[in-house]
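Quick question, first post here. What does this chain look like in 3D?
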Amino acid sequence: MTGDVGTYLASFGKAVGAGLTVVGAGIGIGWIGSRMTESMARQPEIAANIQTGAIILAALIEGVAL
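> Answer (accepted):
Ran it through. C-alpha cells below.
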C-alpha cells in the first residue's frame, strides 16, 4: 500500500476536527436545553420568550456546526 503520510495526516485531522465540532455542538445544545428548562421552571410567566430565545440559539449553534 503506497500513500503519502501527509495526505493521511490531513485526512485524520479533518476527521478529528469534524468529530470535535459535532461533540461541541451537542454539548452546547444540551446546555441550552438544560438552562431553558431551569429558567422556565423559575419564571413560568415568560416561558414563551425563553423558549423562543433558546430555539434561536440552538439553531445558531447547529448552523456553526454544519
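The chain has a mean pLDDT of 90.
Residues 4 and 10 are 10 Å apart (CA to CA).
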